[in-house]
Every structure is written in C-alpha cells, then in structure tokens.
Amino acid sequence: MNDMANPLDLDQLRTFAVIADCGSFTEAARRVFKTQSAVSMLIKRLEERLGVDLLVRNGRSITLTRAGD
Q: 25 — alpha (psi -120 to 50), left (phi > 0) or beta?
C-alpha cells in the first residue's frame, strides 16, 4: 500500500511546524514536551515518508528547504 494513501502523522506535522516557527530542535522539543532526539526522529521519519528534505541543518541553525517552506 502506498504510504501517501494514509494520512500524515499529525504529531510529525505539529512538530515540524514548531521547528519552522522557532528555528531550533532544542526549543521545539521544549515546546512539544519531547526530547531533542525524539523530535529529530519524528522529522527524519516525516522527511523519509515525503521523500524530501524539509530542513537544512547547519550546526545549530536550521532553515527550511523549498519543500519545507
């Protein structure tokens, strides 16, 4: 079955939106009450599911890719 036939995970989408809003995995983790590693894993799974990179990670700074925007 095609993954895209299933709804996207709302927790992943909410977490991505928080990262996009605050620009930090650490701050996003605090805001969604998860560990930083849990947030990283959620985003990794979302990117794998969609087949695109949503964020560019440059050390501590994060920017949205065109797909992420």
A: alpha
Listed in sequence order, the residues at least 6 apart from 64 whose beta carbon sits closer than 8 Å to its beta carbon are 20, 54, 55, 56
Beta bridge partners, 62, equal 57
Its pTM stands at: 0.86
Q: E strands, the chain, where?
A: 55-58, 61-64
Is the CA virtual torsion 19, 24, 29, 30 positive or negative? negative
- CB atoms < 10 A from the CB of 1, how many? 5
CB 32 within 8 A of CB 15: yes
Q: What is the DSSP string of 48-61?
A: HHHTS--EEEETTE
pLDDT averaged per 10 residues in sequence order, the chain, 69 residues: 71 97 95 97 96 91 94
